[in-house]
Amino acid sequence: MTLYGWTILIVSVGFTTGSLVWCLARVLRNHGKQDRLHGTSDLNVRDTDG
Amino acid sequence: MSSGKKDGWGSSLGVILAVTGSAVGLGNFLRFPGLAAKYGGGAFLIPYFLALLFLGLPIAWSEWAMGRYGGQRGFNSCPGIFRSIWKSRLAPYFGVLGLIVPVVIYMYYLFIESWCLGYAWKYLTGGMNLGSEKSAYTNHFTTYVGLTADGAFFHQGMALPVICLLVCIILNFFFIYRGLSGGIEKVCLWGMPLLVVCAILVLIRVLTLGTPDPAHPDRNVLAGLAYMWDIRGGMPGLIQSLSNAEMWMAAAGQIFFSLSVGFGVVINYASYLKKRDDIALGSTTAVAGNEFCEVTLGGLTTIPAAFIFLGAAGAVGGTFGLGFQSLPLVFDRMPAGQLFGFLWFFLLFIAAITSSLSMLQPAIAFFEEGLGLDRRGSVSLLGFVTLMGTAIVIWFTKDLAALDAMDFWVGSFCIFVLATIQTLLYGWVLGLKRGREELERGGLLPIPRIFDFVIRYISPLFLITVFVLWLHQSWASNWQAIQTSHSVRIALLFVVAVTILFLLLIARAVRTWNARERKNS
Predict the structure, then answer these.
(1) What's the predicted TM-score (pTM) here?
(2) Domain presence at residue B2
(3) ipTM reported for the complex, 2 dp
(4) Which of B33, B76, B190, B506 could form a disulfide with B271 if both were Cys (CB 3.0 to 4.6 A apart)?
């Protein structure tokens, strides 16, 4: 295989695998903490006075 | 806008895997490698990744944003979501495409899914030892599918192909009946990791084959990888390949079909997300998952394996030829081929069932929110409609005429139309400001500013250009098929009947929604 072939293979496989790992790491980092991707919980604005 | 308890996702990972499962199908492991090999190996990857950046990813983002926008306003089906975005009386009727596209594709995709299950079973039980001649595998496929004559599929009686089809029907409706979190999400949470494990095992086998046939020292792993990834002819070859308009069209089409954009599925799935879920990260992860399965797993496995055992001549062919005729011959010649044949067809089966399940949900959502049916009623109605369609597909099996006709007119033509409508809806009706607000709410993943320009101008232009080129290339033969084949006409008449049925149901749903809104205001 030529240098062109190796370059395309490594860049393509590296890009797709790296993107998935990076995205999944960000998703999983928050997976256990809250049942949403990265969203913050809605503010509880219920009136508790009285 | 439906009343009663709403369905929803159990977890963020679940929805990402469900969308990825919907996108990953036979195309990732068979169509993409076949196209890359056909269009000069590595050169194909350049237009492919450009199409990903300017077509696939922007449309995926916009679809997720529109889906949740509609979901937050009480709608989960395409007609309802379109109506919530575009305040026109016509809007929900355009949404009919978001129902018939997945439903009709399901009708024939189920048949293909059953082949994968049947082949996996045959490998598991040692029934695929057909010898070392390709004709044996071609004949086996011809008989299995019933390609010789209409009705031939049923002449086999209660044999494995029919049993596998029944199993697939039962599995699909069992899981769809269990709902989003209890059915689809659970299948994808288990199925997608299992699919990746199976694919990695097959990949390791292929990459460690060395030079299996001493009589053909030129057929080795490196040569197989080169056939898939190298730029044939060096720099002049690259320039020549890049000047081939057909390759650009094929690459854009592959990205487009592979990501399941314009299917009516993603917009439906995204409608069940919570208000502050990070849809930018979710959609990007789903796209990345699909690309990993396609480029890394499919690209490193299929063509190199076929090249190593069959040479360049065996590494080309359509999806069915490569998948169900060439690869079984490869597994016959491969050490421990029965095991790897099973793993291969089992992973194709998982890829297929996670896709077929997603095709049922949009119509179920519409029946529930538009007609007020409960889960049992909507599943029963959809089961009846899809069974009739599948019956047409499996009766008219001669040269797969009905399947091909549905695939062209609905699985390609209507998808292009729906994706164009969705892109225009996002860029010009929902608007970039509201769209970006939806996309960025709850998200930490920044969406580049250039996305606004791309989704408003570049993506629609790219899409319409590819659509026109594709139509110009394939229109004549498919139009001729309508004129010459009665099975094609019957299949398409059925599609038209289903479309009319859905339009009538949308009209009824719109009356219900209007009445409810008047009452609430």
Answers:
(1) 0.92
(2) no
(3) 0.89
(4) B76
